[in-house]
Amino acid sequence: xxxxxxxxxxxxxxxxxxxxxxxxxxxxxxxxxxxxxxxxxxxxxxxxxxxxxxxxxxxxxxxxxxxxxxxxxxxxxxxxxxxxxxxxxxxxxxxxxxxxxxxxxxxxxxxxxxxxxxxxxxxxxxxxxxxxxxxxxxxxxxxxxxxxxxxxxxxxxxxxxxxxxxxxxxxxxxxxxxxxxxxxxxxxxxxxxxxxxxxxxxxxxxxxxxxxxxxxxxxxxxxxxxxxxxxxxxxxxxxxxxxxxxxxxxxxxxxxxxxxxxxxxxxxxxxxxxxxxxxxxxxxxxxxxxxxxxxxxxxxxxxxxxxxxxxxxxxxxxxxxxxxxxxxxxxxxxxxxxxxxxxxxxxxxxxxxxxxxxxxxxxxxxxxxxxxxxxxxxxxxxxxxxxxxxxxxxxxxxxxxxxxxxxxxxxxxxxxxxxxxxxxxxxxxxxxxxxxxxxxxxxxxxxxxxxxxxxxxxxxxxxxxxxxxxxxxxxxxxxxxxxxxxxxxxxxxxxxxxxxxxxxxxxxxxxxxxxxxxxxxxxxxxxxxxxxxxxxxxxxxxxxxxxxxxxxxxxxxxxxxxxxxxxxxxxxxxxxxxxxxxxxxxxxxxxxxxxxxxxxxxxxxxxxxxxxxxxxxxxxxxxxxxxxxxxxxxxxxxxxxxxxxxxxxxxxxxxxxxxxxxxxxxxxxxxxxxxxxxxxxxxxxxxxxxxxxxxxxxxx
Length: 700
Prior knowledge:
The protein is 2% helix and 27% strand. It contains 3 helices and 41 strands. A hairpin with a 2-residue loop joins strand 31 and strand 32 (594-598).
């Protein structure tokens, strides 16, 4: 990100920030969390760039280690185009014509091999062969590790809702989108679809609650807010900057990353964690962007990624409980408005990470002792050099101590820009999988467990871009990285591609994948005409260059269930603006097999989650940075103009209302304990039906 203004097709410019809404290497030596969370390690040791000096040179970089993944099924590789919405992955053909990006008209879906879940074992069983996923050679996992794996949760009764349609129990919302599956579908009733935020005094900024309707309370945030609200244990946490100036020692004109905590019932400010800006500046810690991650909360502990490239564990009560909880107890400031740090892990110091602009991963867990993190390792300010090519992109660590169990650098020298996605976790096919979206435009799945040898175990990887797509500096190309978070629903993985909002609009791709496959499960493989038996290594800028004798051919081991990019909905033989999936930084939400996603061109898409068949699109007329919420039979989505569009959940478009929130929305609506939370750029609103309104004062 290099400037403050970029233009969409709408009349106004968006603020520049990258919000979260993001071969295996030997693991790094095991390290534990630092006892000095305030150490300026990144400022005292400059990171020397050793990546290639030009944009094209990374194409010649050594390929990732392929030994960790299984080879595709042996068959004559053939070339084909991408699978269209509503179709199964196309079978390989005999043609050797060069692959193109031309899309064909969708046809009726081909049904993949029928699979069921064995009630006793929890494993996926192929109805034709009778084999379980664990029986298949491509899915083999050592017996000593299988003993540690969880079973797939039993499916709900056929007449009841599927477990994946009910994320949580309607109470707390303790992490980014509620669980490791990352599906924003909380339970809730009587959630308002009409409200008025009221006004704000132009002199004091004080909320004028007498003009508001269905607003429980309003809390002041900073001047820019990209973190998503998390609600747990009677408290609400939001990432923002220091524009509110809650801490006396840090007036509002001091730039900080701020994780602020409010009382869930009243909106009263409780405490703030303050991350001072790195002296290296915008290359590592972009001004005014604040904390762009969402925390993970469990009991009286909270974990989050600071913009400085640290993973910190905090006491959720701060110092309001009168205790300084260790092992770290050397805080200089212990007033009741300050955060109580338990431990700190500095990824820049300990792992050599060089995050591009900021770290912003929203951490998740396996539900036990493990945390999963994307490090945000990326390019430097030149947008060409990769200062830390050997630094990991993905890590697994102990939530209690900060000890790192394994790391992985699979994106390697193929990182396109930054790495701003967040991981997902679920048991899939009887195997715990942690799914990372890399800055190279690939999706990676690893065994979501601590391994005996300290090495990550790669299960599968998927190139989310057509092989002939090309990365162009500044965003004018067709190859994308991934900022969205993967979502897991009914045993499948959903994820879309996009770029830094500064790069503007462009073609996008939304994928539905089968996570029981193993190895390279991309839609296509790249070959040279001189050797159509052995795939060529991936190249950063463009995987397949036709004039060099390279071709893309269908992968017989592809995990693609369906792919959505362009769809001739009206059958006129042309692809219109509203028949295109554009780049997105948003994440899908799915309920009752109906999927919703917003793209950065302002389109809101509704599709069949099982087939990819589009149901409808809606033009919001403004870029969307966030992701949809499905709750109480309604769907909510915000945009950069500050509007929240509310639809009736269903296959037919039914717009219920559009409500303006006063200024831009860069996060996503969430619901916890029957309250709807929406943050605009400067305030957090707790929205409740009129019977639950309270006349609480603004906490400014």
